[in-house]
């Protein structure tokens, strides 16, 4: 899977989708990461200000990797890039 994420909302959607593909509850993901279920819910809803270490822990539990790439200058900006 290759997914571009440019906002907390998109990141939360990605985490929710990956969690559901594994048929995990938010509580199960929380137990794997040492977080509370309520916090997983807020991240999936796109709450801003989540620590990068928390995202790493969630990605580790979901067996995902964070890859940083330079944007393609020929690609038209999305509406989220404008605002």
Throw out a few tags for this protein.
83 residues, mainly alpha, 434 Repressor (Amino-terminal Domain), 5 helices, 53% helix, 0% strand
- Amino-to-carboxy terminus distance: 27 Å
Amount of beta strand = under 5%
The CATH homologous superfamily = lambda repressor-like DNA-binding domains
The amount of helix comes to 40-55%
Here the CATH topology equals 434 Repressor (Amino-terminal Domain)
Any idea what the shape is?
elongated
SSE order, one letter for each helix or strand: HHHHH
Whole-number average pLDDT? 90
E-strand count: 0
Structural overview:
- It is a single chain.
- The chain is mainly α and 83 residues long.
- The chain has a single domain, classed as 434 Repressor (Amino-terminal Domain), CATH 1.10.260.40.
- The protein starts with 7 loop residues before the first helix and ends with a helix.
Explain briefly what this protein structure is.
The protein is an all-alpha fold and 83 residues long.
Which helices and strands occur, and which strands form pairs?
Elements: H1 8-21, H2 26-33, H3 37-44, H4 52-61, H5 79-82
Helix pairs in contact: 2-3, 2-4
């Amino acid at each position: 899977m290759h997914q571009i994420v440019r906002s907390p909302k998109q990141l939360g959607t990605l985490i929710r989708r990956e969690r559901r593909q594994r048929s995990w509850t938010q509580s199960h993901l929380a137990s794997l990461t040492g977080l509370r279920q309520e916090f997983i819910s807020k991240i999936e809803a796109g709450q801003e200000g989540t620590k990068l270490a928390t995202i790493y822990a969630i990605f580790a539990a979901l067996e995902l990797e964070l890859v940083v790439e330079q944007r393609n200058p020929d690609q038209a900006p999305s509406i989220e890039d404008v605002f």
